[in-house]
Write a structure and sequence with these properties.
With about 280 residues, the chain is an alpha/beta fold. Helices cover about 40% and strands about 25% of the residues. The chain is built from 11 helices and 11 strands. The strands form 2 sheets. Strands 3, 4, 5, 6, 7, 8, 9, 10 and 11 form a 9-stranded mixed beta sheet that branches. A two-stranded antiparallel sheet has the order 1-2. The longest helix is centred in the N-terminal third of the chain and has 27 residues.
């Protein structure tokens, strides 16, 4: 309060305290920490460099304390907290799997529900309130978003495919192939990420990633997968190649800023912490 108002008297009035009590509290804290938190002039006070750092950390601690109280109050009622997550399947099985496990372990009293859908469906579900947050590579200007990171897209080819002679694949080289796409709206993402993707006209859809992989293994065609999805699938008799030029997708955590709640904050913070651990 003192740092924001830059005046001890004004802060005392705002806090309904005496000026001497506020001043004594600051002096006691400075003595305890053995640093000067405020630079005092005749008419105002300003945080010192270390003082500003202390203020920033204190604000985080206060916010965390409020989150803990809210979380515990939810655990003690008959209506527990919940979080509804809408996501494209590849994100749930890939980059978000560790974060979801960590969130469940940290907050066992929060019931988490996962709705799998296409990129467009995820956006729509968050907009209308069916889901609290969404994980998608497509974002809307109507929703707040947090960048979860970028991952590379790879061509998945059957063993013995002619394109395996090189370490990368150009779109023009596979223009005549049947492209097996997972029916999660990924075509929108690939069209944005891969140049000249409109030349891939011969496409069929699969509702599951493992089905698409099995089709490629049995010579139906080729597919495109994000890096995280490849670690979750049976890749026997299959090979991967990067694109030339390389292609990437960016995943976002999206939510309606007007309906932000404590569970969304906790989930976002868990993702940030999980990324720092990794």
């Amino acid at each position: 309060m003192v740092a924001n108002l830059k005046n001890i008297s004004a802060a005392a009035r705002k806090l309904n305290m005496t000026q001497s009590a506020v001043s004594q509290g600051i002096i006691t804290l400075e003595r305890t920490l053995e640093v000067s938190l405020l630079a005092r002039t005749r008419d105002s006070v300003e945080p010192t460099a270390i003082g500003q750092n202390v203020i920033d950390l204190a604000e985080i601690a206060v916010a965390a304390s409020a989150e803990i109280r809210t979380l515990c109050s939810g655990a003690s009622t008959d209506d527990p907290l919940h979080l509804r997550v809408a996501s494209v399947p590849s994100a749930i099985d890939g980059v978000m799997s560790d974060a979801l496990r960590r969130f469940t372990k940290l907050f066992p009293n929060i019931k988490i529900m996962v709705f799998e859908g296409s990129h467009v469906e995820v956006i729509d579900w968050v907009k209308v309130g069916v889901a609290d947050v969404g994980i998608t590579a497509v974002f809307s200007p109507d929703l707040a978003r947090f960048n979860l990171g970028t991952e590379e897209l790879f061509a998945v080819l059957p063993r013995g495919h002619s394109s395996l002679r090189t370490m990368s694949v150009r779109i023009e080289e596979i223009a005549d192939e049947v492209l097996v796409l997972v029916n999660s709206g990924c075509e929108i993402v690939y069209n944005e990420c891969i140049r000249n993707s409109d030349i891939l006209q011969n496409k069929i859809l699969s509702y599951r990633s493992d089905t698409a992989i099995e089709m490629v293994r049995n010579g139906v065609g080729i597919t495109i997968m994000p890096q995280s999805a490849l670690t979750q699938l049976d890749m026997i008799d299959l090979r991967t190649r990067s694109f030339e030029p390389r292609a990437f997708r960016t995943l976002y955590l999206v939510h309606n800023a007007e309906y932000e709640n404590i569970t969304i904050d906790l989930f976002r913070n868990t993702i940030i912490q999980n990324r720092s651990v990794v």
